[in-house]
Amino acid sequence: SQTIHQWPATLVQPVGSPLSLECTVEGTSNPNLYWYRQAAGRGLQLLFYSVGIGQISSEVPQNLSASRPQDRQFILSSKKLLLSDSGFYLCACFGDRGPTYNSPLHFGNGTRLTVT
Amino acid sequence: GDSVTQMEGPVTLSEEAFLTINCTYTATGYPSLFWYVQYPGEGLQLLLKATKADDKGSNKGFEATYRKETTSFHLEKGSVQVSDSAVYFCARKTGGTSYGKLTFGQGTILTVHP
Q1: Mind listing the pLDDT tens digit for each residue in A2-13?
Q2: Residue B67 gets which letter from DSSP?
Q3: Closest-CA residue in chain B for A108?
């Protein structure tokens, strides 16, 4: 089964600073990868997904970008953080069978970002 | 577009009480439905799922039945424990087999007191 690693676990950054959050996946190949954000008191919002190396789809316009330089690596970035970027960022992928009809998403443990 | 609506929280119960968390979804296509649980400081874990009408998902004493006629997938547990305190998310799956994605409800905070 796959394992999703995210780091760092927590991060405090000043407004205007750059951001790089990394997600790596073990135990599967060619996974679909997803970045979700959970803002305080809100549900999960899908930010980006990727079906392969170099392929990024953005769900909402925002201050963030994503990249997939390797098959099992997914990076979330920003050139200049805003206060509104604070939140809990979760990386996810489907299981070994991929996004078949009934397969669930599996999540990493997340990165809690506080922009001050 | 596709959406999921959960009952407003937070929900506070005493141990051994009965739990219901309501969830309804938009009826576009025939989505698979999921409940996830998030314990403090952690990511989301799959709790249970159902893939077609009248399916019942169950796990750890929790149950939810896929009701197509009411577009609902309510989460229930007969006797909650303090350890069930967490945030619960209902989700529906959209998209084809090529990419798929989950749309989540806003989450319901459950607190169980001894």
Answers
A1: 899 999 999 999
A2: B
A3: B43
